[in-house]
Specification:
This protein is α/β, with parallel strands linked by helices and about 450 residues long. It contains 26 helices and nine strands. The strands form two sheets. Strands 1-3-2-4-5 form a five-stranded mixed sheet. It binds iron/sulfur cluster (2 copies).
């Protein structure tokens, strides 16, 4: 079925159906698909499972049939849409510009509103939606999960695979809590800019060193950083679970917080260190397009949103040379490379900081993290991680750099090579502390190589 370019998809939505702006948008997207199947080649679930219904084109047909015929979601549609990672590799590959992201987001909302999942799945999703976006609850849950870690094999044995996956993913040790309160970090020297840093929900708990490094790099290069009062989770976690009401509440809260800051002291950008969140914030304008009170403000916020590496790429980074020669495998998070089309900037930034940057084979394929995917779809996620780690190890890096906390956690669970955020490396290379994950024997060879090169 692959590789045949046909005519654009025909649809038969009624005028009454098209009165719903979400249906109208999906219809527009469906009509751009020409059934060519190019997207199947780069879709991780199709590559692994080989089932057309687990390819973008197959999912598009399932969604079309469900929406066009006003059908409630059934088990089959739910299975194949749940298996989609929302990695958006299909959007990068599609020659016809099909906006699969908005289509699958709509399908997930339709599933959430019309399909009754099995009890255990429903409970698990409710727990994830209540815990992950909330720093305090998430920290408490991780503390419990660490204690219960040895029970992971037992949970898998009795069929509670997602619980087992959660326990396995829980870090062995939790970093000290990050600064949670709203604060301003003044620029060193003459102020050249002022930005808000989105703290996020998972990053401050699992990887607080990332935002701390971002603040140091920015202030060191003359940028004032503010953590605005009232900001929270971007809403992406619940958005990808189809819980639109919860997602839009989070979006409005952040819009209020950032607009207050932008209209107050002023902002040049809103910086995000987790690219999954960045993709969501850049879509706020679309998500609130039908909300008369918020549409304009949300559009403004999306225009201000930038990935941390995207922003740093525009600064004159001053490297100390300390990291010269360290081989870094750059893992392009899907949300960054496919969602935001940012591919060059992080690598160039690392090179300018002195690192030897290596591309990873099959870099377009997802690592299996994908928000809550590595908990809810553990089997596929583990296969994707094994493939990703094997590809990364081929380039024999000293360190792996990934611009998304989800990828960092997922990849780190499958390798002994340290995995850090690019901004932690840039911080180290420009006068900051060496990332804690790098303090170990793994770097001995790299240090020897650097010393050798210096002779
Ligand atoms: S988003 Fe990723 S997993 Fe989903 S259909 Fe597209 S390529 Fe496949
Ligand atoms: S989504 Fe794009 S690449 Fe995939 S079948 Fe449709 S037109 Fe072709």
């Amino acid at each position: 079925m692959g590789g045949r370019i046909g005519k654009a998809m025909q649809t038969t939505f009624t005028l009454a159906q098209l009165a719903d702006p979400n249906v109208a948008e999906s219809e527009k997207i469906l009509r751009t698909c020409v059934h060519c199947g190019f997207c199947t080649a780069t879709c991780p679930t199709y590559v692994l499972l080989g089932d057309e219904l687990d390819s973008p084109r197959g999912r598009i047909y399932l969604i079309k049939d469900m929406l066009e015929n006003d059908k409630p979601a059934n088990e089959e549609v739910t299975l194949h849409i749940d298996r989609c990672l929302s990695c958006l590799a299909c959007m990068t590959t599609c020659p016809s510009g099909v906006h699969y992201m908005h289509l699958v987001d709509h399908a997930r909302v339709h599933i959430e509103n019309t399909y009754r999942r099995p009890l255990l799945n429903r409970m698990l999703r409710a727990v994830l939606a209540a815990v992950l976006p909330d720093n305090r609850r998430f920290r408490a849950a991780l503390t419990l999960a660490r204690l219960a870690k040895p029970l992971a094999p037992l949970m898998a044995l009795v069929g509670l695979k997602p619980v087992a996956a959660m326990l396995r993913l829980a870090p062995a040790r939790l970093p000290a809590p990050a600064m949670a309160e709203a604060r301003v970090f003044p620029a060193e020297g003459r102020r050249q800019g002022r930005v808000a840093l989105m703290a996020g929900c998972v990053t401050p708990v699992v990887g607080p060193s990332i935002n701390e490094a971002a603040i140091r790099v920015l202030t060191r290069h003359g940028i004032e950083v503010v953590l605005p009062e009232g900001q929270g989770c971007c809403g992406g976690i619940v958005h990808h679970m189809g819980r639109e009401h919860d997602a839009l509440a989070a979006v409005r809260r952040n819009v209020d917080a950032w607009i207050a800051e932008a209209d107050g002291e002023g902002l040049d950008a809103i910086l995000i260190t987790a690219s999954g969140c960045g993709t969501t914030v850049k879509d706020y304008g679309f998500m609130l397009r039908s909300d008369a009170a918020y549409a304009g403000k949300a559009k403004r916020i999306s225009a201000l949103a930038k990935d941390i590496c995207e922003y740093l790429a525009g600064l004159n980074i001053r490297s100390t040379g300390v990291a010269s020669g360290f081989v870094t495998a750059y893992h392009g998070a899907c949300s960054l490379q496919h969602g935001q089309k940012i591919t060059r900037e992080p690598k160039e930034l690392l090179s300018r900081a002195g690192f030897v940057v290596k591309d990873v084979p099959e870099g377009h394929l997802c690592c299996g993290s994908a928000g809550t995917y590595n908990i809810l779809e553990d089997d596929i996620a583990k296969r994707l991680r094994a493939r990703k780690v094997a590809n990364i190890e081929k380039v024999e890096p000293d360190v792996i750099a990934a611009g998304n906390i989800g990828c960092i956690t997922q990849i780190a669970a499958g390798t002994t090579i340290p995995v850090v955020h690019p901004v932690e490396l840039v911080d180290w290379a420009t006068g900051g502390p060496q990332p804690a994950a790098l303090k170990g024997t793994v770097l001995t060879a790299a240090k020897a190589r650097v010393a050798e090169a210096a002779v």
